[in-house]
Structure formats: C-alpha cells, structure tokens
C-alpha cells in the first residue's frame, strides 16, 4: 500500500497499463503526425488538448509538457524574453509563496529571474494569505519601479498540503500590480476539481505523473487566451512549430496514458470530499491516539499530511537505527515513508480506503509500542 | 513490419516491455531518491549515467534529458548565458550543416541564437564537407568579429542518412575558430558505435526513443569534462540541483527502459556493418530493378534511405489517390511510409532481415505493376 504523497496520485489504473504496452516503443504516437504533436488525431492528442483538458482544467489553451517544472520554465522564460529583454516593462523578479516548490525556484533561476518569497504564518500552520503577498508585491515595485514578471501561488503546496487563504484576492492583487499570475496545481489537478477560469489567473500548471494517474514524465500547462499568445509564438524558420515547445514535447507513451485515464480522472475528482474526509479522520486519530502532530492548516483540506513525530525520533536514537520506521512499515506492507526519516514524516491517504487507513494507524501504534517495549 | 526511419531504432525488445509494466506509474523511480535523479541507485540510474553511458558514448559526463532537441536547447541556452550575455566573447550564432534537423534550429531560436547554415553539394548527393563549414565559420567571424557560439554537425542527418566528410577535420576547424562543437547523433548512438572522445567534440546528443530501443521521451547528452562544467552549474538556492536540468529530468519509466536495454544496445551496435550491407543490398536492387533513385551519398552508410519515386507519383495521379502507396503497403503489412507521400519516400531497413527486405522489394514491384496494369 503506497502512502507516499508524491506517488499516490500518479498510480496508473491496472486496466490502462495493459493497453499501454503497445505504446512503449519510441515515437509510438508519431505515425499519423501532421507535423505537430498537438494536432495528432490517432491517437487523439488533438482532442485531449483542444477539448478534454481545457474542460477539465477550465483553461482556454492547453499544452502537454514534460512536467510541472518544465511548464514553469516555459512560462518564465517566454515572459522574460518578452517583458524583460524586449519590452523592459516588468522587473526580472517572480514573487512566490513561502511554501513554494524548489523546482519552481530552479525554473526561475534558469530564466535569470530573482525570487522574492513571501513570509508565512510560520510554525506550526505555515499559512500564506493576501497580506503576505501584498508585502512582497510592494517590495518589488518599491525596489524596481516595475511590477514583478510573475506572481506564483502554490495550490496546495507539497510541504504541508496547505491552500492559500483567499487565492482569488491574491490573484486580483497581483494583477492590479501588473504582474502575470501562475498557479502551481501539481497537487490538485487530477485529484480535485480545479478551474483556471474560476481562479482568474493567467497560467495553471498540473503534473500528470504526480496527480493525474499517469506515467511520466508529463505535465499540463493551461493558459488564458492572451497569456497563451505570448508563450506559444511560432518559429520564424518553421512556422508550423511552437518555439518554446521546441516543436513537439511529449512524443510518446505518457501522452497516450493521459488520453486513456481522462474518464477515470473525471470520475475521481468528484470523490474529493470523501478523500478529504478520510485524511481528516486519519490525522485526527493520529494526533489524539498516537501523539503525532499535524503541521499545516486545520481543518486540513488535502490528503498530503505532514506530521511531527518526536516519538519515532526517540525510538530511532534508542535503537541506533534511523531506518527502523521505514523497515517496520515495509514489513507491514506500507510503502512511502522515506528511508531514514523519523523526526517528521509525510503521508498521503489518497489511495487508501477506511479499512486501510485503520490498518496504517494500527501499524503506527504497534511500531510506537515496539519502541516503548525495549 | 516497420520501415519508418524515425521509429525503426526505437522499438523496445518484447522481453523488456513486460518488465517495464511495474514502472508505468508516475515517479516510479523516485522511491529511493537521495535528492537527485542521477544519483538514484535503485533502479541504478547512477550506474547508467556514471558508467554505462559514458563508456557507450565515449563521453566524460552524461545526463538524461527529455530528448535530443531538449539536449540541444540545454547546451545552447547555457552557453548563450555564459558566453553571450555574461562574457560577450562569442557571437550569438550557431553554425549548422545544410542537412540539420529542424528541432536543432528551434532550440537555437529559443535560445536567441541566429542560425548560419552551410551549403551542401546539392541535389542529388547533398554532401557536407570541410569546405562548407570553412565558408560558414569565416562568414560569422567576418560579420561579428567573434567566433560562433556552437558549431553543430549532424551525424548522420535525418533527411538523407548522410555522414559529413571529414568530421574530425570539421571539429578541429571549428575549435580553431574558437567555437564549441556539438554532434547531433540522434540517428547514430544506439545504432552504431560512436565515441565523443574519438570525434574530439565538446558535446554529443543521442535520442533514446529514436535510436536506442527506448520508450520516450528520452535523450542522452554526453559532454567533455570542461564543457560539462559550463552546462551543469548548481543552483545557488538549492546547491544539490543542476539548474539547467531543473533538478531532475526523466523521472520515470524511460530511464528504467534505458537501463534495461543497455546490454542489447551494446550487442546491436556491433552488428552495424551487417545493417549497412543490408541497406546497400536494398537500395541497389531498388534502383536497378524498380527504377527508384536514392538521394544522398553513395555508397550509403546508414539504414535511412531516401528515394525519389516518380513512378509512384505518376500512379497516384492516374488513380487520383495520393494515399494509394500507403494503403497498398499497409495491406502487405509494411508500415512506415507516411500516408499521402508518393514523390519521395523515406525507408529504413534497420529492423529487417534479408528475407524481409526481399519481401519489401517484391511488394514495391507489385505495387508498381498495379499502376501499370490499369
């Protein structure tokens, strides 16, 4: 049973796996290519891109990319060339929340952009809200006399599973400051209903291998019409090709996988309330009965759960074995707590049912008792 | 039977396909990650990168990337930042041969680099040699007073399957002019023995889904030590991560596929002479007996064969069906000639044995007779 947050949302349904065998070869989608990956109708990538995903993500324009980080880079670098190098009307800066993912920061660094991180409410909630963004946005305008190029919002973050407070307010504020807005939805698209249109941002990024039951690497980049026109410029030398995508991106199996899992994804996001209820049931019992302490917002609204676990750390010292927790869980068929980690652990209940959640709780209790017993 | 040049080298062995099923999930390689894809030992990506591929490609340093085009971009953009934006000691120009692949040109365009294409010997051989590069290199130095950033050599190209004349001389000349050198070996690494060290260039790029029997997307970037240090700088904020790779690249199945096919690749490149002999046997008979005319160099040294086929074009006019050739071949189980193409066709004999080559010749003859019969 997988309880690893980065893997729980990327498990491909067994029935799809078998159908994917015939697409394992290199260039398995390119036989009927009219010159652009996104126009292939056999398999129907065109429909995926033009109908299924725009509907699923509430975006005007969608493109397949190699993953969420590659989507961040694609957006940052295209906007950097347009608004920093060419027009000079934006500061070479992005504003990010204090819980942002390192890969987004790498994408900014690769694009020669400076990173301004907002404060958070700090330990133990680590909440981010409008006031944190206001401060960061103001500081950029003050220093550069220009708005930051992009304001990024993690929705939710991968450290605590927190959603920002008042995301629509943050997006509105960023736009009023003259900044583009990008939502990192790597932990939401494919798990829960998400709509770029509802959130009114310019860009939204999903990770298919993280939260869309897909083989990797694969990400989705959703855009509003006007924003898309900046990122999807066509090549001067090869006018049928989009320069920032280098013509074609995911030329193979992961694209087919996403086509095949779309019906499943549409169904599963409707179950999100049940998923959150189960996560709450788990952490409430883990806190009350086992003494684990959940970090991040409460009530929690995501299956990614980050616990402080001083009791496990103590046992690891006593046993002189920092791998004991990993090993004991593995013995019990529970996979996903990083080997060697005992002070704080991240768990996801995404793939579990109520019975399995109880089993994980019982297993953790047994392992705690093991430590006491010695 | 697949005769499509872009797909013939990317067919994954059946035995490997079955073992890949368990790696279809997203992040299937990340369970034991110590913080960097290229350091994962379970599955052993570290060994692939540090031992197997450096040996196989004759490179000091190797990295996995999403494909050949992504490797070109990674190199161009990193060198652009270092040598154009920062040091200003190179012209924002790349020199490429007249047979270069469009994706390399897109990678340059995305990196804000101008493209200077060499001449070729033109129809029907389209050969590129030292004299063509000399002219192009001189023209850049004359115009900019600085060397071009990178000189790129397609080895062989994907239009005609031509190898450049005197590639070592070209690389030496480019280096003497002060330019970095990059070999596009998307059609050679994995099909035939290739060594960056022997060729004495700075970068070499292979395509795993094109020529390394791999599921896609996946490419390999081989570098000489000094060249690698420019491309693989570490992040200031996240020092364990390589910025130009955005931390990790191919986080999933294709990386495992390459590990699994390495023994097969080592064996198959030793068979290259036999592959070339069969391609020659095919085109010699096709020219002599069927009136097809091979474009590109003769004797040919690659399985990628580009024929002029005026007879098929005539039949398509007569039948008022430009898809007839595709359909007739498909009827006979021969897959890979692009639907709608009849004037010039590209074929690869890579996956065929002598008997199958004879069958393809017989089939083409039948189809020609079909046209005459009406």
Question: What is the fold's blueprint, element by element?
Answer:
2 copies of one chain form a homodimer.
Chain A (H helix, E strand, L loop, with lengths): L4 H4 L5 H7 L24 H13 L3 E5 L2 H19 L4 E6 L5 H9 L3 E4 L12 H15 L3 E7 L12 H10 L3 E5 L11 H4 L3 E5 H4 L7 E5 L1 H7 L21 H17 L2 H19 L2 E3 L8 E5 L1 H10 L4 H8 L12 E5 L5 H20 L1
Parallel strand pairs in A: 2-3, 2-4, 4-5, 5-6
Antiparallel strand pairs in A: 1-7, 6-7, 8-9, 9-10
Helix pairs in contact in A: 3-11, 4-5, 6-7, 12-15, 13-15
Q: Count up the domains of chain A.
A: 2
Structural class of chain A: alpha/beta
Instruction: State the CATH architecture of the largest domain in chain A.
Output: 3-Layer(aba) Sandwich
Q: What percentage of the residues of chain A does DSSP assign to strands (E)? A: 5-15%
Q: In CATH, what is the homologous superfamily of the largest domain in chain A?
A: Type I PLP-dependent aspartate aminotransferase-like (Major domain)
Kindly report the oligomeric state of this protein: homodimer
Please give the alpha-carbon distance between the first and last residues of chain A: 28 Å
CATH topology tier name of the largest domain in chain A: Aspartate Aminotransferase, domain 2
What integer value in Å does the Rg of chain A equal? Answer: 22 Å
Query: Can you list the strand order of the major beta sheet of chain A?
Result: 1-7-6-5-4-2-3
Mind telling me the CATH class of the largest domain in chain A? Alpha Beta
Report helical residue fraction of chain A. Answer: 40-55%
Total DSSP helices of chain A: 15
List how many beta strands of chain A DSSP finds.
10
């Amino acid at each position: 049973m997988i309880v690893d947050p980065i893997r729980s949302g990327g498990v491909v349904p067994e029935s799809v796996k078998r159908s994917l065998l015939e697409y394992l070869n290199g260039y398995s989608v390119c036989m009927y290519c009219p010159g652009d990956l996104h126009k292939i109708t056999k398999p129907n990538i065109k429909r995926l891109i033009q109908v299924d995903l725009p509907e699923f993500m509430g975006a005007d324009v969608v493109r397949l990319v190699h993953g969420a980080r590659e989507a961040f880079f694609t957006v940052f670098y295209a906007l950097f060339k347009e608004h920093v190098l060419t027009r000079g009307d934006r500061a070479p800066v992005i504003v990010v929340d204090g819980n942002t993912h390192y890969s987004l920061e790498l994408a900014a660094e690769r694009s020669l952009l400076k990173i301004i991180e907002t404060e958070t409410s700090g330990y133990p909630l680590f909440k981010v809200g409008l006031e944190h963004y206001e401060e960061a946005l103001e500081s950029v305008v003050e220093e550069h006399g220009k708005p930051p190029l992009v304001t990024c919002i993690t929705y939710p973050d991968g450290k605590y599973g927190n959603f920002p407070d008042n995301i629509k307010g943050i997006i509105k504020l960023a736009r009023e400051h003259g900044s583009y807005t990008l939502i990192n939805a790597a932990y939401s698209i494919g798990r829960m209903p998400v709509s770029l249109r509802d959130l009114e941002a310019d860009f939204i990024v999903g990770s298919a291998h993280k939260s869309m039951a897909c083989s990797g690497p694969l990400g989705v980049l959703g855009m509003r019409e006007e924003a898309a026109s900046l990122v999807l410029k066509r090549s001067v030398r090869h006018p049928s090709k989009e320069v920032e995508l280098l013509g074609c991106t995911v030329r193979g199996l992961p694209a087919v996988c996403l086509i095949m899992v779309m019906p499943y994804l549409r169904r599963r996001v409707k179950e999100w309330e049940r998923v959150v209820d189960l996560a709450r049931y788990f952490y409430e019992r883990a806190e009350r009965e086992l003494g684990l302490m959940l970090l991040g917002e409460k009530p929690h609204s995501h299956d990614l759960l980050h616990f402080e676990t001083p009791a496990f750390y103590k046992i690891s010292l006593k046993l002189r074995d920092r791998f004991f927790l990993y090993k004991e869980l593995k013995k019990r068929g529970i996979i996903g707590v990083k080997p060697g980690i005992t002070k704080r652990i991240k768990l996801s209940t995404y793939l579990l049912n109520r019975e399995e959640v109880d089993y994980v709780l019982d297993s953790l209790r047994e392992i705690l008792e093991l430590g006491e017993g010695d």
